[in-house]
Amino acid sequence: MVLDNNPELKKLISLVKDKKVMLCAHWDADGVCSAAIIYHLVKEHVKEISTISKGDIFLIEEKDIKGDPDIIICADIQPSFGLDPKKIVYIDHHPNSSPDRYLFSIHNADAQSTSILIWEKLLKNNTDKYMIFLSLLGYFGDGGDREDIPVELQVLA
Q1: What number is the average pLDDT over the span 90-111?
Q2: What whole-number distance in Å separates Cα of residue 76 and Cα of residue 79?
Q3: Mean pLDDT of the chain
């Protein structure tokens, strides 16, 4: 993993370092793939990590959070306003009127999928075939067009 020239990845790792983390995701292909990428990026740095995925209600609520985590990562799903924004790492491509209210945010409503957003912001220098596969699977799972795959990712794939 290349940390030296990736400020967003450095920031994410510094926020979860030796912390109890709950990783929350939407249960569609993009959400699950995005959460898997984040899980693999942070797992060696955290004290403890737990996961939840949901989809009927596209919102992580207080009742979903177990074990009093230090950090709550929401990937491809919205955190409710009932959660402490100082604990939230928000990574998503869906519209959100206030992504800057969170501890850390990687957000772009113009991105096709959260997995592509993660690839662009956290993985661009990563040539790990599994991470490339997860990025593309999430992208296609969210309706991505083969003709619109970012060139760098297409070359690696």
Answers
A1: 95
A2: 10
A3: 94
